[in-house]
Every structure is written in structure tokens, then in C-alpha cells.
Write a structure and sequence with these properties.
30% strand, alpha+beta, six-stranded mixed sheet, globular, disordered C terminus, 22% helix, 5 helices, Jelly Rolls, two-stranded antiparallel sheet
């Protein structure tokens, strides 16, 4: 092999080594960090939702993600039911937000625009919020007044950890 060929080969190998970590699939983008997920039925569909049950996870939410598979989402679990408001700071994908009270009754379903820092409030006290890709709530038939079946291990902040898993 010539000196030019060796240089080209080394350059190609280095380019592949550095490019490989950035070629993540959508599935590898979620969940992140110490997040765990559960299957949750919303309307006529089942979603795999990451649980955001600590202030840190709730603050980070779905920020900085470029995409999310259609059957994924995030369930925010709060210690109490009260008026809630979300915004889309550093969130790159359009989302639906489903707010639900302590019994799982949907109080509102709203849409949120990427990077929009305007507050999107619940229409009543909410203990839970579910973020899905925009259009998923309508496709699944979720509407105000429906009752969500919140998985037992996700009903309270730290629920999974409290069960020793």
C-alpha cells in the first residue's frame, strides 16, 4: 500500500469511529439516564412512557430530543393535584400534553409547539401529565373526561423505587 493509501485508510477508519456514536436510532434516544418506562394504555393505544417523577427528570422532560418513536411518551407524576403549566423550552418536537387529576380523569388535552416558551396550562388540578408526539392523543381518542389507567408502579413519585425494583 502506498503512503497515500495508508493515509486515506487511517482517515477513513477515524471518520467511522467518530461518526458511529452520532448515528443513534430513535429507540436509542429514549429512555435517557436513570429513567424507567412502563406500558400505559391511553384511549385505544398502548404507549411506553418514561416516568418523570423527580424534580430533575421533570425539569429535563423531553428537552433536546430530535425525535421520539410514535408509541413513546413521558408521564410526569407529581405528589399532589394542582393547576399545572408546561412550556417547550429546548424541546424540539411538537407534543400533545394530557393533564389528568389524582383519579386519572383527563382534565385537558392540548398541543405544544417546539421551542415555544409560552405556558400551556391545565384546565383544572392535575397530578399527572402525559407528553406524546403531537396528534397521538387525537389518534388514540383521548379527550377530557376520559379516565387514564395509571400503572400502579407510576402512581406516586418514586413508586418503582419504593417497591425495591
Amino acid at each position: 500500500m502506498t503512503a497515500g493509501g495508508v493515509y486515506f485508510f487511517r482517515t477513513l477508519v477515524l471518520a467511522l469511529v467518530f461518526a458511529a456514536p452520532s448515528c443513534k436510532s430513535e429507540q436509542e434516544q429514549a429512555p435517557q439516564g436513570d429513567a424507567y418506562s412502563v406500558a400505559m394504555k391511553l384511549g385505544g393505544e398502548t404507549f411506553h412512557v418514561e416516568i418523570a417523577d423527580t424534580p430533575r427528570k421533570q425539569q429535563l422532560g423531553l428537552m433536546h430530543r430530535k425525535s421520539m418513536p410514535g408509541d413513546r411518551g413521558m408521564l410526569f407524576v407529581f405528589p399532589d393535584a394542582r393547576e399545572r403549566s408546561f412550556w417547550m423550552k429546548n424541546t424540539l418536537i411538537p407534543l400533545d400534553i394530557v393533564y389528568a387529576d389524582e383519579a386519572g380523569k383527563v382534565v385537558s388535552v392540548k398541543q405544544m409547539k417546539p421551542l415555544d416558551e409560552s405556558p400551556v396550562p391545565s384546565d383544572g388540578p392535575a397530578k399527572y401529565a402525559v407528553e406524546l408526539n403531537q396528534g397521538a392523543a387525537k389518534r388514540a381518542g383521548v379527550k377530557a373526561g376520559d379516565v387514564l389507567d395509571i400503572p400502579a408502579e407510576a402512581r406516586e413519585p418514586g413508586g418503582r423505587r419504593d417497591r425495591g425494583r
